[in-house]
Amino acid sequence: MSNTKANALVSKKFKKRSQAGEIFHHLSKNKGAMAGFIILSLLVLAFLISLFISMDSITAMNARMRFTGPSGQHWFGTDGFGRDLFLRVIYGSRYTLAIGLGAVTFGAIFGITFGSLAGYYGGKLEEIIMRASDVLASIPGILLGMVIVTVLGQSLQNLIIAVGVQATPIYLRMARASTLTVRNHEFVEAARAVGLPHFRIIFTQVLPNGLSPIIVTLTASLGIAIIVGASLSFLGFGVPVPAPEWGAIIADNRAYARSAPWLMSFPGFFIMSTVLAFNLLGDGLRDALDPKLKMR
Amino acid sequence: MIRYILIRFLWLIPIIICVSLIVFSLMELAPGNAIDAMLSEDLTPEARQELIRRFNLDRPMIYRYGVYMFNLVQGDLGVSDVTGLSVWREFIVRLPNTLVLSFTALIIGAAIAIPLGIIAAMKAGSLVDNAVTVVSLVGVSIPVFWLGLLLILAFSLHFGWLPSGGYEHGIRSLLLPALCSSFALMANAARQTRSNMLEVFKADYLRTARAKGVPERVVIRKHALGNAWIPIITAIGSSLSVQLAGSVVVESVFAWPGIGRLAADAVTARDVTLTTGVVIMTSILYVLVQLIVDVLYAFVDPRVKAQYLSASKKRRRAA
């Protein structure tokens, strides 16, 4: 009787955390990851606020308020059309989030599917998939992005595709590698012996067990996707005007770098902070998922 | 070894064919190309027929691609739709500018990053280490085009020390773009160096070396760096191909007349022939540099070299 009580007490005290709980515990002790988490929370907050901003209020021009510096009324100053930069930057958060998350999701769907197929089946199929991925990886990213946007036309959706296509080979290789490490485990053999169909084995047995390196890669590459997207926008292959995408705002105000430096400083700082946040979170996640690498 | 290099080079051929096929067919799909524009003009039926024959429009796309590649092998990429200049010449004229920029960036980046990474690893956990870590984190997070504009703002508009773009001032023109494109590389290489050195510091042979009384400086330079060297070289080498091909952004910001800017201008002007040519040539350059780095890598690391040798032996036995 008292024994079971003591057992219950012990198990309460040393309650085994779930895997997700364990990872979060590691993350919460990592200062960098927490900083990244806070920055991202602010970004999500900015996005939520921007839902209350109408497109009209960020495109309305005001000839009397051209090029005013940051002030109490206009926190980030105004641009050459007298538009409030703070509102535009806050509104722009949705494009950055959409490009980052959209492109990584796009790349992940194709990359993980084909990568795990290649790793699981091996043989001819693997050879074909990997060579195709090599070909895709051989076209320099930004150039491929520019060509894709030119062919498909300028829109947010096509920009996401252009960025996502570049990321696909990276995820594909990652997914193949981690499938290879899992594929010969006994539980996969058991699943096969039970007679599960191959695609179910891949998606219920192999992938979940090889997921952690893939998740780290995905998180870390969110930052890269955002930089690539902003660069394409900066070069004029992004979301069409007047959408206040951060890279596009910088490009539009390049000519006023000297007279109105705030116009390129704020959006650039926002891009950098967002990318930094994802990088910090990615590093933290890598440490949390793989304690062996912690001292690196 | 020679056999291995030869096989790797032969592998390039199908890759180049596939890459150029993708780019070529994408550009054929691009709306509003020059031939469309020509065909949409009021033409006599004869003139129309003449155009269709000249550009092989009555044949399948694969035929036009074949013709294109046949000419490419002979160094003929057609003429620009806009300026009428030879695409091949345009590319070759600008190639050296990109090479100069990339190598300068590489040298600046490596020269700063490697010592920084070593110092950071030697004093792990110290103020210097934390500073290097923070700076390199910021370095990989900063968008290159924004960094470029900030550099222009500071060094050319504010202080007026360096020109903001172009190439007329020789070394002085080169400095800002090279610094800008070396920054990301620097951040990457510093991180890589630091983590590799930390890894090597745990090795038994370092303890042995210290125990037998080898001076600390020699331990670091010979025993530690000698083993940490390889991944650092790979990191820098693979960033060279990225530099060469990804120079689009830096060259656009600093108006540097290299192949990246040529490509950007061509795409913006909807110059299909020029774009196709430049993108295909840049891709070829990209895979070629990657291959060279791979092969060099095998030469630098005796372990990798041995692995390749045994792998090719195995393949021969299997064949």
Topology:
The complex is a heterodimer of chains A (296) and B (319).
Chain A: H1 2-13, H2 19-29, H3 31-50, H4 55-59, H5 85-121, H6 123-138, H7 141-152, H8 156-183, H9 186-194, H10 198-209, H11 211-235, H12 246-252, H13 262-289
Chain B: H1 2-29, H2 34-40, H3 45-54, H4 61-73, H5 87-122, H6 127-141, H7 144-158, H8 171-201, H9 204-211, H10 216-245, H11 248-253, H12 259-268, H13 272-300, H14 302-318
Describe this structure in words.
The complex is a heterodimer of chains A (296) and B (319). Chain A is an all-alpha fold and 296 residues long. Chain A has helices at 2-13, 19-29, 31-50, 55-59, 85-121, 123-138, 141-152, 156-183, 186-194, 198-209, 211-235, 246-252, 262-289. The radius of gyration of chain A is 24 Å and the shape is elongated. The relative contact order of chain A is 0.14. Chain B has one domain (87-318): Orthogonal Bundle (MetI-like fold), CATH 1.10.3720. The chains are: A mainly alpha (296), B mainly alpha (319). The A-B interface holds A 32, 131-132, 134-136, 138-144, 146-148, 150-151, 153, 223, 227, 230-231, 234-237, 247, 250, 254, 257-258, 261, 264, 268, 271-272, 275-276, 279-280, 295-296 and B 14-15, 18-19, 22-23, 26-27, 29-31, 137-138, 140-146, 149-150, 152-153, 157-158, 195, 198-199, 242, 245-246, 248-249, 252, 263-264, 267-268, 270, 275, 279, 282-283, 286-287.
Write a concise keyword list for the protein shown above.
heterodimer, A: 296 residues, mainly alpha, 13 helices, B: 319 residues, MetI-like fold, 14 helices, 0% strand, flat
Briefly say what this structure is.
The complex is a heterodimer of chains A (296) and B (319). Chain A has 296 residues and is mainly α.
What structural category do the secondary elements of chain B indicate?
mainly alpha
Q: Give the H and E element order of chain B.
A: HHHHHHHHHHHHHH
User: Radius of gyration of chain A, Cα only, in angstroms?
Assistant: 24 Å
**Proportion of helical residues of chain A:** over 70%
Of all chain pairs, the largest interface belongs to:
A-B, 43 and 46 residues
Sequence stretches where pLDDT stays below 50 over 5 or more residues of chain B: none
End-to-end separation of chain B in angstroms reads: 18 Å
Largest sheet of chain A: none
Classify the fold: give the CATH topology of chain B: MetI-like fold
Average pLDDT metric of chain B: 81
The shape of chain A, in one word, is: elongated
Q: What string gives the helices and strands of chain A in order?
A: HHHHHHHHHHHHH
Characterize the overall form of chain B. Answer: flat
Which oligomeric form is depicted? heterodimer
